[in-house]
Design goal:
Helix content: 10-25%
Oligomer: single chain
Biased composition (Basic and acidic residues): 307-316
Strand content: 25-35%
CATH architecture of the largest domain: 3-Layer(aba) Sandwich
Keywords: Protein biosynthesis, Transferase
CATH superfamily of the largest domain: Formyl transferase, N-terminal domain
Low-confidence stretches: none
Number of helices: 8
Shape: elongated
CATH class of the largest domain: Alpha Beta
Number of strands: 15
Largest sheet: 7 strands, mixed
CATH topology of the largest domain: Rossmann fold
Number of domains: 2
Radius of gyration: 23 Å
Binding site for (6S)-5,6,7,8-tetrahydrofolate: 113-116
EC number: 2.1.2.9
Family: Belongs to the Fmt family.
Length: 316
Amino acid sequence: MSRPPRVAFFGSPAFALPVLEAIRGAFEVVLVVAQPDKPVGRGLKLTPPPVAARAAELGLPLAQPTRLRRNPDFEATLRDSGADVAVTCAYGKILPASVLEVPRYGFLNTHTSLLPAYRGAAPIQWALIRGEAVTGTTIMQTDEGMDTGPVLLQEALPIAPEWTAHELADALSAQAARLIVQALSDLDGLQPTPQDEHLATHAPMLTKEDGFVRWTDTAAQIVNRSRGVAAWPQTTAFLNGARLKLAGLSVTAGSGQPGEVLGVSEAGLTVAAQEGAVLIRTVQPEARKAQPAHTWAQGAAVTPGTRLDRWEPTAP
């Protein structure tokens, strides 16, 4: 292409903002597409997603279609924008072929894993839950499948052992912002590489139960799960059926029956796993504020020997 490409940007959450800003700093953004406004908070106030709010601040053309399939009006909007290429970043909707075919260079997607590993809605979370030491960003050509298109650019990112989903998302967002500018700067030179289907793994959307502690896991597995669900649904344990939100988990020394409280100190609550033990620094009982674990334990009469409920996922 003899001139810089005109870009349509598809994204919704705050994660996508650094990518939008990087593209806007290097290219002309002719259209921003985000999910529709949604009710938020106790008052259910209709609120735009972060990308839509930022586009409005910048005065960029904005579309928030409720659906993409069989929507000729939206296809006309995209066509009339003059976009040479579209970029998706955490947009949150599957794109039909009729939309994918509109821009001359199609759609590029920023995916937060080293595809074909962790295809799906929650690659950041599942990489942490599975205890991965390395993940990365893939710039791929979007097709009609779920993250199945050919790879255009890919770069690894080591995962720091203390990172939760919050820190990993920040690092990957910055990486994606840099790589998409690189890709857009060389659209004609990109070499698509098909993904190896035999190596594909999946990262489905999280459920509330994905945050429930499995005390029969190892201590490392419990901590990794807590890192992965830190943003949502967060880590949940149970005592006599009552829910407890846990935070600040780390692996520590100790052994006992899974879920058994081994010790209470100012450092936190030590609970046995199937292998090793977990130190819990913060506990939030239902309908109450978070507090230091030892403060909660004193008030709840939790002492060494107390057993937290054992929860196991229901077999499919």
